[in-house]
From TrEMBL:
Protein name: Phage portal protein
Length: 406
């Protein structure tokens, strides 16, 4: 997570300190390749999915998911899962607002037990860190119990729940995996990306060190004593003995070689993670939508695998939300209600003329109505299709009125 959030300097400084006695003389900076690749790979929620609630009122379901901030938090969860390989969603309840809550938990605060199937949890413990070790506490969940424990593991008595009961009857967490797990809850992987980022950071430090130390020529002189110091400057005359010489040695820093190595590292790392070798190539000229589509085939294939995992995760999340909400607000979600998710397709980078031509063709073929075209143009501007239809009607009436002769 430190690498994802631009907190890489300390690791780079420690590597430099192993070989140099004065690591503070080095200028440390980085290009965040980790976040770029992770965000590129985690494309499931790049566009908002369409959730259809079956067996319950659609408006009620939409309101519940808006109160969860589901779209934003699931996008965050997809990125964290792509980086860490395993994360967990926690569904809770805010007594002050009377609404459900959703949080993303990372492996560093989790301890779990399961039946042998990592998706079937029997116990989950969440660490709530604090500035002092003695202030740290833990949430200990099973399907029937909930206890708060102190840093020694002793149970903390909780007002209103003296018996340590879990009111939900389930563990209100949903595990998320970057791939189908075998028998491990915390999936391995991702070390290659972190190692590549570390190598990139060191290469950037070496590059800038070469620039700083060899950006200017080195003066030299012959025919003078070793301890004699010449006073240099454009307003000074240098006096040398007979046979003495003076000049500047040109620097020979391997800047181009270092840059080539850095570019090779970044391009190959991107290609290994299905992002395309040119994702870090700033010299690439603008390309047509067809060319962009061809380059993104591998990324799209990887996304198809992710969609199946996240479609299942969405269904499990809804079942947990149903239990939590009905526990605190009985009858809000019918017991037989279910959820289906339509994930948005990634759109190719087309020119405005190409996009308009595609829209016109879809309308002519009956695949879209003008309402679909308006929603595609401004997906966040309307609460539902009825609102988009009303706006489209208003615009047509306005156009017709303006077309009338004065």
């Amino acid at each position: 997570m430190r690498y994802y959030w631009d907190e890489q300097s300390q690791e780079t400084l420690q590597l430099i300190a192993r070989k140099w006695s004065r690591p503070e003389d080095f200028r440390i900076f980085s290009i965040n390749m980790v976040r770029k690749i992770v965000d590129k790979r985690a494309s499931t929620y790049r566009l908002k999915p369409r959730r259809n609630f079956v067996g319950m009122d659609q408006a009620t379901g939409d309101a519940i998911y808006r109160s969860l901030n589901a779209d934003g938090l699931l996008k965050k969860a997809s990125r964290y899962t792509k980086l860490l390989k395993t994360t967990v969603l926690q569904v809770g309840w805010n007594e002050a607002t009377g609404k459900p809550t959703l949080n993303v938990l990372t492996p560093n605060v989790l301890d779990v037990q399961h039946t042998g199937d990592p998706e079937m949890l029997t116990r989950l413990i969440v660490t709530h860190d604090a500035g002092k070790a003695e202030d740290r506490w833990y949430s200990d969940w099973t399907a029937t119990t909930f206890n708060r424990r102190n840093y020694r593991g002793a149970r903390i008595r909780t007002d209103g729940n003296q018996g340590g009961q879990n009111p939900y009857g389930i563990i209100p967490f949903v595990p998320l995996f970057d791939r189908l797990p075998d028998d491990q809850f915390f999936l391995p992987g991702g070390d290659d990306l972190i190692e590549a980022q570390t190598a990139l950071n060191v290469a950037l430090v070496n590059l800038w060190r070469s620039v700083e130390t060899q950006a200017h020529g080195q003066p030299w002189a012959t025919g003078i004593s070793a301890n004699e110091v010449l006073q240099l400057g454009p307003n000074r005359v240098i006096t040398l003995p007979n046979g003495g010489e003076f000049g500047f040695a040109s620097p020979n820093a391997p800047i181009s070689d270092i840059l080539a190595a850095i570019e090779f590292l970044m391009r190959q790392t991107a290609a290994t993670h299905d992002c395309g070798a040119d994702v870090f190539d700033l010299s690439t000229l603008a390309e047509s939508g067809s060319a962009k589509h061809a380059e993104r085939i591998e990324l799209k294939e990887a996304r198809l695998d992710d969609l199946e995992l996240w479609r299942l995760a969405e269904q499990r999340l809804f079942e947990v939300v149903k239990v939590v909400v009905n526990t605190h607000a009985p009858g809000t979600i019918p017991p037989g209600a279910s959820l289906s998710v339509d994930f948005a397709e990634l759109q190719d980078q087309l020119t405005e003329a190409e996009a308009l031509d595609n829209t016109r063709t879809k309308i002519e073929l009956g695949l879209w109505s003008p309402v679909d075209a308006l929603l595609a143009l401004n997906p966040d501007g309307f609460a539902d299709r009825n609102a988009a239809h009303a706006e489209l009607s208003r615009r047509r009436d306005e156009s017709a009125a303006l077309a009338l002769p004065l």
